[in-house]
Each structure stands twice: as C-alpha cells, then as structure tokens.
Amino acid sequence: MLVRPGMLIALALALAGTGLTAGAPGKGLGLSSDQADNSGNTFTSAASFCRSSSTGLLDPSANAADTGGNGDGFELNPTNAYADGGGYASNVNGPGDRHRFYDYNVGVPGGCTVNGIEVRLDWWLDSMSDATSMSVELSWDGGSTWTAPYSDSVKSTTEHTALLGGSADTWGHSWTIDELSSANFRVRLTCNCSGGGCSSRSYYLDWVPVDVYYAP
User: Fold this and answer.
1) Where in the chain is the domain with CATH 2.60.120.260?
2) What would the pLDDT profile of 111-152 be if each residue is shown by its tens digit?
3) 89 vs 5, 95, 150, 156, 197, CA distance in Å?
4) How far is residue 135 from each of residues 32, 39, 142, 193, measured CA to CA in Å?
5) pLDDT digits (tens, 9 = 90+) for 39-62
6) Do the Cβ atoms of 15 and 22 come closer than 8 Å?
7) Which of these, 170, 162, 165, lies nearest to 134 by C-alpha position?
8) Which class is domain 53-215?
C-alpha cells in the first residue's frame, strides 16, 4: 500500500500520548517505542521481561567437604544428594562435619530483583538420641563469606523435609544476579549434635535443592 505523508500525520495524531510513534517515511507503518535505538521496532527494556516468579527447585551438580568435625563431610555418596530419591549421602559419626553443594545453575532474568531463597533438606538420623540439627548457610562469593545459619532441629529416623528461608527471605543479604552464578553461589550444611552419644551420630541426606524467588 502506498503511504502518503497525510496518512503518517493522521497516524501520529492517533498515537499521541501512547508512547508509540509511527515509522519514518519510506519504512512503512512500523511502530516503535520512545526508547532509544529502537529501529527494529522492538521493546528493549530488560525490566519489561521480568515477571514475578521463581526458578523452581534446582539441583546442585558439584560438592566438596568443608572444614569442621573430622573434615570429611558427607563422606559416602555425596552426589546422591543431587536428586530426589535414587540413593542418599551419608555422614557417619560426623557431628560438626560440614559440606558444600554448588553449581545450581540459577537463572534469574535480567532486570529482576531477588526476593527470597528457599533451601530444601530431605534428611534423617540414625538415632533419636541427643540434641541434633542440620544447619544451612549461603555464600555469594564462592565461600569466602557466609550468611547466618538457618537450622532444622526436627529429629527423625525416617526421611523428612525441612524448608529453610522462603519466598520473601533473603537470608540477610541483598543478592545480585551475578552472586547466584555457579562461580559464586554456595550452600553449606553443618551437622550439629549436643549430648553424650554424639560421637557415634550419623546423618543421612537425600536431596538439597534451592528455589530462588524474583520480581521486577
């Protein structure tokens, strides 16, 4: 269709106040926003692509024992904690042991703000004796700095699920998207015990996923 100058003027008047403009003469009737460098008639604001959502439960794909206790963390089959079911990780006779899980491959859209992080623990004990718990800390710099720990003190000799943190809980830290990268984000578990039988207490872990909540 031949576009006459009068038609472009009429279209420009119709679009006045909408934040959209008609394409330049000779380029058809494409629409563009007031954003800079928008010759392709696309919306380029990163924030416009962010919707309130979450990553869903994400599995780790790497782990390492940390210092503490006897220094070997979940020494038996730690990779079994990467997925729900299919085996479990074991920390035998290990009060005070600590273990890191990471490489969660967290994907948060650009322009979004992190509103909360939730860590799930599917775990149990070999005995109901003594005062026991499992604690979680998060790191945003590869393990150099950690949040204050959150703990689950439910004692059970069968698997149970603990949810630490939540959709509006940032663990006392203002997270950037880069801090959630595989290079920076870490989850550290600590096996705690207080009592006369702690030296023989064992801890079992089936799964340790994370869920990251975000919004514009």
Assistant:
1) 53-215
2) 999 999 999 999 999 999 999 999 999 999 999 999 999 999
3) 73, 15, 20, 16, 21
4) 52, 53, 18, 11
5) 454 444 444 578 999 999 999 999
6) yes
7) 162
8) mainly beta
